[in-house]
Write a structure and sequence with these properties.
By secondary structure, the chain is mainly alpha-helical. It contains 9 helices and no strands. The chain has one domain.
Length: 210
Amino acid sequence: MGYAENLWLFFILLFGIIAVPGLDMLFVLANALTGGINRGLAATAGIMLGGAVHTLNGAVGVGLLMHFVPVLFTPLLVAGAAYMAYIGIALMRSSIVVGDGGPAGSSAWKAFRQGLVTCLINPKAYLFILAVYPQFLKPNYGPIWMQATVMGLLTVATQAFIYGGLAISAGRSRTLLVDNPRATVLAGRAAGLLLFAVSLFTAWEGLRAA
């Protein structure tokens, strides 16, 4: 199999893993619904930066390290699930009221920071690195750093397309929430409940596999 076919297969797997609903997608959705398009896109940008960092980690051998020291994976997975549970609980306890300026006390910068952390501790991303990267970063296709750069650009572009499109779509529907404060509160709490439920399932799966 040549490099082009190798890269195409990587893209298919990448698109599938990003498109499957998970912590990152729910986080973008929650921010877009409660904070509008700007906050949704800010969360997406943070996740994109996290995706680039994951690619760098894969290139320098973190995936190999965790392959040889698998005991590190379960604590990392549980830590990621705990952080998402924390965000979910915060949303469930909040009473967000959306106006023209967005939810009180929120900011695009905060959404960006949380999006970055969310992606960096997302267990799905580490699973992807462990399972997929070693199969596609091959010396016979050229310098590893160059292959990792291309894979990183594909990752960021795919995240921008999927999560960015979700943020815009959800942000536009947010106008329906501006005139209905009760629906806004329920939407925020429902998003928090989803994040919390997914975090519990993630932690349970990781502990069961340990």
